[in-house]
Design a protein that fits this description.
heterodimer, A: 335 residues, alpha/beta, Rossmann fold, Alpha-Beta Plaits, six-stranded mixed sheet, four-stranded antiparallel sheet, 14 strands, elongated, B: 553 residues, mainly alpha, 27 helices, 72% helix
Amino acid sequence: MSQDAVVVTNQLTKKYGEFTALDQLSLTLERGHILGFIGPNGAGKTTTIKILVGQARPTSGTASIAGADCVRDSKKVKRLVGYMPDTFGSYDNMRVREYLDFFGAAFGIVRSARIKRIDEVMEITGATYMKDRFVEGLSHGMKQRVGIARTLLHDPPVLVLDEPANGLDPQARIDMRLILLRLSEMGKTLIVTSHILPELSRICDHVAIMTHGKLRAFGTLEEIMRKVSQQRTIEVQLTSPERIEQAAELVRKLVEPGVQVEVSPTESIVRFPTKKSEQELATLLARLIEANLGVSQFRELQADLEDTFLSITQATDPQPAEKLVAAGTSGGARK
Amino acid sequence: MNNPIIQRELVGMLCTRKSLLMQAVPACLFTLLVALRWPTDAKVDLSGAQAQEVFALFGYGLLATLILLVPAFPATTIVREKNRGTLALLLNSPLSPWAIYFGKLTGVLAFVLLPLIMSIPAAAACFAMGGLSLWNQVLALYGILAILILQYTALGLYVSSSANTPDAALRVTYGVILGLSVLTLGPYQFLQGKDWGAIVTVAMWLQSLSPISAIMELLGHGDASSHGLISVPGNPERFVILSLVSTVGFMLATIARLQPLVFDRPRPQGIITDDRSTGQQLIRRLIFLVDPQRRKSSIGRFTNPVMVKEFRCRRFGSSQWMLRLVAVCAMASLGLTYTSTAGTLDWGVETIGGIMVILQVSLIVLITPSLASGLISGERESGGWALLQMTPLSTWQIVIGKLLSVVWTLALILVATLPGYVVMIYIKPSLSQQISYVLFSLGLTAVFALLLSAAVSSLFQRTAPATVTAYTLLLIICSGPLLFWMGRDTTFGHGTVEAMLMFDPLAAALTVMDAPGFAQYHIVPMSWWLTGGASVACLVVLCAQTWRLTRPQ
């Protein structure tokens, strides 16, 4: 295990009666990294997070944060982790500053230091302008900022954020991304769950993909994509759709037998997956040009986190995409 | 049943366990009451006195049951729809506000009429005992109670349409009902028999807003304010008129609120007094004394942060309202004592003391559940509990902080009534020990009410059911034994009444005060032990449940 390992889980398992919410999860995350936790609802993400922050007890296995056991040293873990659940936890009739002051006092920060710290965290999260607003009257994006400010009050080395970008508008998502990157630069280790995969791919340097309580893939984004994307998708763009069927016919002849060639006349595009080498693809392109079909572009589609997720989950779950689309607010184990 | 709301409301509620309880429990209780008093020998009671006694108890029991149960359902129905977002969907449907309102009214009304319907066999048994008038007593009682249900349902729906949370709606509804049924009796107590013309008439009509006067007259007990031969009949008729008029008012006001514009509200901008001009700050200071919009200072080093948080985030019970309530309490207690000493009323110190005790316990019963029943359930409902769990605060700190936030408020209110007792001791120094016992009883009642409400709160995930449960339990404990007291020396013997009064902290204070009708019962200190024991049990439940909630799942 690395000296810099901050979050470590070993064979972590959680069962609710007969139902296994989490099945032998083992992973290690080093200081300053951002881990994206991905999975459909019921995959075990929230269960993992609850064990890490000391709100759930594992059936077997261990989890530790900065050397503190999440079960035995739960008091210590509270000071090491800043946790933002998927629900905000609003109090009526309280202004943002009072709200943060309460949590600061609950963490035992002395008054003078607390006043300074509240100003700092509001500045980091861009929440200073809303200090006198009532918490219950904030918009969703504002609440997420205040939520992060709350997690930062006691200056924890690890931040666990459950769905921080959920329900945010595009501008708020960009702001949230910048805040998270800034926290990473400050040396914080972040664990972030989200259903918005393009967003995660922009901030996370590590990704853990889970389905049915099992860890299906874990590593840097590049490592996972390399492992998954052995098959590439090629797109052939024609100048006009008239000869698109001829182009598709020629591609079917030249690529592997049985490959599904997709034809899109409206876009004048022929799209197909292949495992052919660069040389073989060069030959294919030459044949298409020779046939005078009006090829304007021949390109490889870049696999993204969404494709990677689908590739991994399709092996274990027949309809993961539907679940992902249906994902409302958060993951969560059946209780 | 073409209105889809009636189907959803009524069928939805009828399919629940509470519906079964609402039908079964009152039916069993009333059947038991009649069965206990059913003649066991072959003699016929030609005077009908026994039937009258049983019918009186039955009538008061039914009234108490309805006052307890009815508000809980209409008070939460609209506000819940509003918060879940389904009211917006209904208002955007082709259903008119009238259809929505009458759908809800009919659904809730049909449900809350169940206890009344289920009590009919017991009423029929009373009638079969002989000596009762079908039209003037049995049917008149049912008519009054049916109108009462309609009025309280319309009131509950109105409050529900104006409130922001279900528990706030419950608090306001129960508060208004307490005011309508008890406080309206007060002015006529003082003004009857005086030659003050229209003022006395207004007080008389005000008294008729309370169903207690109407029911007392129907059951042959005069009216609530009668003294000696002074009793003005006609309370049932006046009650019917006032109830129907107010019901129509509540209906129209609620329908007027059921418009899409009800959602057209800006987010609060968080205007703060410190940023206003000096003049405005001064005016606000004069109006509020403790300005709720001032910028508050940071929580002190040795202060329990949970207690401060509770004070700050509570709408009901915030400082400016509490100060007003304390002032009203102080003035009321002094006023009562003054009327006694000035000879305006020849009631005696014991009667005045009894009234003060009843008013104080009413305040405790009204205020405590509304402050304490959301202590834990409110955190769980809002998602704040998960955040509290993540702080280093111990279970004990959380419990102490939450309890202290209510203790201070209750202590302020109780202390505010002390001047009245001080005047009493000044008039009759021999009362000093007796009054100290009364104050101890009241303090114990407040502690019990607080711990019971907080323990109930720790057992629920939502505040609304916790509030209803806390109110119901407290009202049953404080007013249930009084039903036995009302049948003293006739339906129930001295021993039975004394045994039942032991469980009632209100009765303990009244017996210590030697209030009329209570002086002959000796329930102290046993009653104190019982209340103290129950308080300890509630504290154990509260601590154990809070500790369990702070543990990992």
